[in-house]
Design a protein that fits this description.
about 450 residues, mainly alpha, 2 domains
Length: about 450
């Protein structure tokens, strides 16, 4: 079910909120939230709901068992159960085709029979997100940084909570556990107003900017990149750069707004990433909850920055390689992750020796251009397609031809202006002024009229 669908906005959400604020008992509310979230997830395909439930039950039991045991060996065994279950399911559904294809192709070159069956597995929507939510919980319980959930119902509500279930943010139990244990009994209208602002802002980002850019980006610039010259290739790459940001930040904003309607606060996931003045700064601002997850559970355990330069560079490359793989089972995602790992390692090497760009404007522009080039790899289905796009951006096919409308150019300019100059939704101070309310209401109404043309969020595929 899409946040931008009429079914969600006019049927599912009103029904859930009406029941949520009508029930007084905490258990009734948690049961409602869990069941409603299961309905929300099953709307896509109910056959994958057992995977979500299985992950929830296993990790809840693991958390309880680890908290009750004082034996380190026993606790490690239970943690291994969680790791094998969560990463095993994620690996099977997300990476089996990628790995089996690679292995079978390799043995075919040696004139051998395929080693693995050619299973065509469907990727369960949201599995990367709810797996990391749940896995982070068991790791924190193992580290004794997190007490186990009060009950299976509390934990099931956390894992399945529909605002963040499909595409994040990656919420930790420490972020919302106490809130679920102390559910508000009365409506906080200031929080509801904040939720309306975030939900409406996200809806506008998605419907008015991201979806409008998607039409041109998908049908012209990336469908046939070899036909584009210098101008067309850059317009396509910039279009996808802004489409991806406004699409994903829209989902995160809407998730924050939906949580506010329930009286729950979510963490920030974006902080104007295209204003970054270095690649390290970009990763502090882009998909913040994912960056923090890999920092805490991969980069720091590898040794983080507590080693020599070569060790830090290795840790950065390994971490970013896994970030790339998390996004998708394709060699272009692997290359994108390594690309950013190299950039981060180079930035650290240079900054440790005082080799930094003194001009803030040049630093921001160069960082943005590096990110744009990376998005070409991220978006391309193959290296051949990526090279066609990049060669066009390098001017290897001349200036043209290119086919763009003045509307597309204007939309790019608006997207760039918001990204580079405007404060983000977390920086805006919400004041109940009639003029602002009317403006937001008109924009939201326009989005509702255009929702029938909306497309799924880009991060649904991850």
């Amino acid at each position: 079910m899409l946040f931008t669908s009429y079914t969600f906005v006019f049927l599912f959400l009103p029904a859930v909120l009406l029941l949520w604020w009508s029930f007084r008992g905490a258990k009734a509310r948690l049961l409602l939230l869990t069941c409603a979230s299961y309905v929300f997830y099953s709307w896509w395909d109910w056959k994958f709901l057992p995977l979500l439930i299985a992950t929830t039950i296993v990790d809840y039991v693991v958390g309880v068992r680890m908290s009750r045991s004082e034996l380190e060996r026993t606790r490690r065994i239970w943690l291994a159960v969680s790791l094998v279950t969560d990463l095993g399911l994620l690996g099977l559904f997300k990476y089996y085709g990628f790995v089996s294809g690679f292995i079978n192709t390799a043995v075919a070159h040696a004139a051998l029979r395929p080693l693995l069956p050619n299973w065509q597995l469907i990727l369960p929507v949201g599995i990367s997100f709810y797996t990391f939510n749940s896995l982070g919980y068991t790791i924190n319980v193992f580290r004794r940084k997190q007490k186990p959930a009060q009950s299976l119902l509390h934990y099931a509500a956390f894992v399945s909570m529909f605002p963040h279930l499909i595409a994040g943010p990656i919420v930790r139990y420490s972020d919302v556990g106490k809130q679920l244990e102390r559910i508000r009994t009365s409506v906080n209208w200031e929080q509801v107003a904040r939720g309306l602002f975030f939900f409406s802002a996200g809806l506008c980002k998605k419907v008015l900017i991201a979806d409008r850019l998607a039409v041109r980006v998908n049908t012209i610039f990336f469908a046939d990149p070899a036909s584009q010259g210098l101008v067309g290739s850059w317009l396509g790459a910039l279009g996808y750069t802004f489409q991806l940001y406004f699409d994903f930040s829209a989902y995160s904003d809407m998730a924050v707004g939906l949580a506010c309607f329930l009286g729950i606060d979510f963490p920030q996931n974006f902080d104007s990433p295209y204003k970054s003045d270095s690649i390290a700064d970009f990763w502090r601002r882009w998909h913040i909850t994912l960056s923090h997850w890999f920092r805490d559970y991969v980069y720091i355990p590898l040794g983080g920055s507590r080693t020599n330069d070569l060790g830090v560079m290795r840790n950065l490359l390994v971490t970013m390689l896994l970030v790339g793989l998390w996004h998708g089972a394709n060699w272009t995602f692997v290359a994108w992750g390594i690309y950013h790992g190299v950039l981060l390692a180079a930035h650290r090497f240079a900054s440790r020796r005082g080799l930094v760009i003194r001009s803030a404007a040049i630093a921001q522009i160069s960082t943005f251009l590096a990110v744009v080039i990376g998005w070409v790899l991220f978006r391309s289905v193959s290296f051949a397609s990526a090279w066609e796009m990049l060669s066009g951006m390098l001017g290897m096919r001349g200036m043209g031809p290119y086919l763009v409308s003045s509307r597309y150019i204007a939309l790019l300019a608006v997207a760039a202006g918001i990204s580079f100059l405007a404060p983000n939704t977390w920086e805006l101070q919400i004041a109940p002024k009639p003029r602002l309310s009317w403006l937001l209401a008109v924009a939201t109404a326009l989005c509702v009229l255009l929702m029938s043309q909306s497309v799924p969020f880009l991060y649904y595929q991850f």
